[in-house]
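seq:
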Amino acid sequence: MNDITQCVLTPDVSSSGFDPLGVGVHRASTIVFKDAAAYASRGDRGHEGYSYGLYGTPTTRALEAKLTSLEGGAWSFLAPSGQAANALAVLPFLAAGDHILIADTAYPPMRDLADTDLKRLGVEVEYFDPSTADDVAAKIRKTTKIVWCESPGSTTMEIMDLPKVAAIAHEHSALVGVDNTWATPLNFKPLTHGADIVTEALTKFVSGHSDVLMGSITIKNLALLKPIRSLIGRMGIGVSPDDASLVLRGFETLGVRLRHSERVALDFAARIAAHPAVEQVLHPALETFPGHALWKRDFIGSSGVFSIVFKPEAADHVAAALDTLQVFAIGASWGGTRSLAAPMPIEGFRTATTWAGPGVILRLSIGLEDEDELWADIERLLAALVPQIAASSEGQRVAAGRG
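struct:
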């Protein structure tokens, strides 16, 4: 064989006896076949076979299999981001004239997809109050194809009665989808509570290191497989096996990271709630939280992410107070090793409900830094707001004296 040809062709090397703990990174676009007959019948391999890199490699399949097992589903798909997973979970099941019901506290990009693209395609979009299943019962129609849920709700953490909502949806032959990013499958398993589809932003807790974007879709039964798989193929959407390997690596420490963040976040949430600048801490595991009973009934554990609602006199000064932080980073997303603080706007992202608090609240994601140093950072932030509370109280006292 000519040297040039030998440069291109690679000899088969036995992998017998090579049994590493890590999953190998299989990069591929073209998949070759032993003969013309095998190539001609490649479609017979089905969704579990390999026919082209876009439809999976052993690396991506390993991640999909791990997700499928943890979610208690029938099959999983990977997407380039959490929002891509959300979009791919609903688009195959909607057409012009159909109706979708979406939790009013859903992830803002999901609302944007609905209000911009689904409406443009002729889908009727409506939002429901996630705090009561009765609103789903009142708004569901014969044309409703999907009820899209997120529990806890994005930023404001409302907990849904998912089994009740799912029962209502299924009575009307509608699918139920759930964005489960806050909880991960370690803390909540929507498919066992009535959902048909669950999505995760693997970008966050599962990958755990703030260095990769990926999402997943897990289905409860294989009847949903072909519509999603076909759309993914038509749109040419795939993920890098290198990124999948990073998520697989992060997955291995998810349990210990999540339990650490859960413990520290709940401790911090309870301590922050007692501060005079704070109106309310939004954390479902707090007994004072309105949805706590539902959270306790359905969830296995809690997350390292919660939000702080400041009193009106302090709320306008939170942005300046963030500059006192020395350990927390200011940034979007959550679930990495680094603790994050992010001012989150609420106004403009509610339709079926009314948000009575300030327009912006503060979301914290607890990472893996020393918890005493993290708490000292929070104390610095809160201390920066105390003069604003004092000034407001003094102003009210003077005004009352004049009266």
